[in-house]
Q: What sequence folds into this?
């Protein structure tokens, strides 16, 4: 007798986990709680996806952070509303500060309980706002969504996952208990999430020409490769470009290991005045152009802000979403979208 199971739809929770698996994630960190248990049940139904339980939510957040740094894909953690999500927020905040891709999934009370402002454990006071905790994480996330509408939920999942990748920052997905099993079209999984940033092509071309023009007028350029090169998935293209240019190249404490240190053009780790002898002078005194790529100018990454400021005319800044060549700034030019065509253009010039 044939099965009558409807394969044209799937539970919303299954969609969420399948989407996350499509990003290359294999391990889900977190702590079970009464508001996420049914959500967690669907992890085992996704091939290649495993649950990794943690002793507490803060540990889960740091584990997700470390997983992302090592694997290159997002780290994912699951907590329960209120006590769980708040316990994890220090780890998420650290990931935000250092541009680490983390997806924090929070199981919450059902939408009926939310609308009724019912007094339920994990809530505050006699007339509780069940969504008050989501306001607390506003400053440590790039995007968030509530999966409380069956029609819009799949698109919201895709939007938030995309934002996580484009900005390399934490995001939050809140899943009410009564929407875990809601059916949605299974065919939506056939179209992968678009993870490519939308770069202004004209601005990108102008920036590339400006960089090449600036390089052609310099006799002692230096390149600094920093953490966002890795975070924003530009390391492979960057290393190919470095091989082509073969210019003196430095990394930073946060960017260490992005550039193979056995390369003949690798000159050391630049950390302002606490660098090894000769490194700071090579960058600050002996160069006539410094190209700072994927920079994170925090105190711990710059020797306590002990770098000697460079004249703007002697610098090129390649940020997460803009390029500045001297005094000219090109907006909406994303790092990975700039590095790849710059490599192709430089090859053509050679």
A:
């Amino acid at each position: 007798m044939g099965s009558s199971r409807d394969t044209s739809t799937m539970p919303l929770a299954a969609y969420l986990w399948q989407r996350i698996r499509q990003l290359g994630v294999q391990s889900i960190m977190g702590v079970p709680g009464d508001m996420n248990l049914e959500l967690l049940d669907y992890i085992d139904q996704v091939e290649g996806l495993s649950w990794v339980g943690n002793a507490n939510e803060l540990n889960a957040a740091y584990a997700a952070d470390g997983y992302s740094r090592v694997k290159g894909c997002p780290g994912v953690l699951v907590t329960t509303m209120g006590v769980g999500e708040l316990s994890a927020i220090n780890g998420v905040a650290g990931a935000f500060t250092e541009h680490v891709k983390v997806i924090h999934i929070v199981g919450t009370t059902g939408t009926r309980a939310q609308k009724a402002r019912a007094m339920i454990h994990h809530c505050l006071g006699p007339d509780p706002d069940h969504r008050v905790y989501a306001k607390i994480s506003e400053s440590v996330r790039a995007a968030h969504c509530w999966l409380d509408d069956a029609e819009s939920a799949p698109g919201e999942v895709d939007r938030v996952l995309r934002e996580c990748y484009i900005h390399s920052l934490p995001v939050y997905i809140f899943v009410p208990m009564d929407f875990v099993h809601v059916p949605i079209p299974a065919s939506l999984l056939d179209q992968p999430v678009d993870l490519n940033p939308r770069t202004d092509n004209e601005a990108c071309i102008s920036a590339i020409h400006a960089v090449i023009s600036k390089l052609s007028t310099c006799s002692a350029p230096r390149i600094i490769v920093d953490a966002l090169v890795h975070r924003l998935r530009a390391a492979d293209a960057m290393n190919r470009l470095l091989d082509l240019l073969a210019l003196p190249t430095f990394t930073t404490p946060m960017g260490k290991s992005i550039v193979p240190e056995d390369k003949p053009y690798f000159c050391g780790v630049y950390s302002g005045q606490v660098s090894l002898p000769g490194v700071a002078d090579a960058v600050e005194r002996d160069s006539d152009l410094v190209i700072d790529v994927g920079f994170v100018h925090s105190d711990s990454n710059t020797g306590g802000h002990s770098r000697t400021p460079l004249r703007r005319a002697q610098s090129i800044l390649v940020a997460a979403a803009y390029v500045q060549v001297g005094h000219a700034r090109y907006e909406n030019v994303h790092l990975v979208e700039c590095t790849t065509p710059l490599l192709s253009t430089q090859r053509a010039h050679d």
